[in-house]
Amino acid sequence: MHISSFLIQEGRDSDYAALSDLMDVMRAERVPDEPSAPLSERQVAWRSVPELYRIRTWLAWEDGQAVGRAEAGYPDVPENAHLLHTLFEVHPAHRRRGLGRTLLAEVVTYAETLGRRSLLLSSVSNVPDGEAFLQRIGARPALEMRVSRLELADVDAGLLDRWLEAGPAADFELGFWTGVYPDEHLEDIARLYDILNTAPRGELEVEDVRTSAEELRQRDRSFAATGQRRWVAYALERASGRFVGFTELDWHPARPGTLSQGATGVFPEFRGRGLGRWLKAAMLRRVMLELPEARRIETGNAQSNAPMLAINVALGFRPHRTLINWQLEVEQARRYLDG
Ligand SMILES: CC(C)(COP(=O)(O)OP(=O)(O)OC[C@H]1O[C@@H](n2cnc3c(N)ncnc32)[C@H](O)[C@@H]1OP(=O)(O)O)[C@@H](O)C(=O)NCCC(=O)NCCS
Description:
This protein is α+β, with helices and mostly antiparallel strands.
């Protein structure tokens, strides 16, 4: 066994091919009913990851095959300089032989070199090995998320009509950004993303982030390169001309059956007026009208996010799996490795 490492934008074709094969295996374990992206699409995505995102990958090789990988990354922004987002995966046929531990040692040394003292990790309920590993190495569960699915055939069209009619249209205008964001509104859109700082974080020790227009621009460039599609519905206050809420939906046209419902946010001072329901209903109505190939929408919410879950459950989203976000101090990981 040997380990190689590269920045995600700078892999060789052979690294990408091996990584993609391993990802197919891991994905089949996690979400067996969802198709994987082909290597060609993943390769474009990796090469066009925004420059702002510093993501390093380690591959554990055996007989020319990648049997394990680790990833550690951070956005190059002022906030959360203590954090490193990480991921560990070992091929099911190669588990319980110390590969996870070996990959952890690489990432911990990297974190120490960078001076980042805390790792973020995640596990899913249908892959219990991940949770057992994280408990053993001393990570603590910090935020539980519910991944839910809405089968579009089950959507109650009457409910959508009622929510659309009840929208506060006298005071707010509803619209869509389709594809890359318009340059003239980038700064306003960046401020909309600040709303996400108010979403529940459980016990995660993370700071607020201030999204920059430059980060949105880089994300949009990589989106465009990969062919990913995105609709964002927004609400604009008529009196002030201020954007006050939004909801995102994205998908890849090669796999149009499942759409991904991304972030939704309404500024705290505009909550309680039906904007969240209005935005969600408008998005869903557009999906029903314009995307006949779509069969379902998947989304993730903190289990403690009662207002968002109430809207999603009323729309017909049903729990599919649980995802746990964990946090691990680098010092604790070092104690495990040295123990
Ligand atoms: C998590 C994962 C990477 C572990 O890989 P691995 O190569 O099997 O891990 P190791 O053999 O190095 O085990 C490291 C330690 O965790 C323990 N451990 C690992 N899997 C375990 C399990 N299923 N049950 C109990 N303990 C387990 C090992 O016993 C070992 O403890 P030790 O140091 O006392 O000997 C692998 O199970 C996996 O890919 N899971 C799916 C992806 C995932 O959920 N990752 C979560 C972290 S981001």
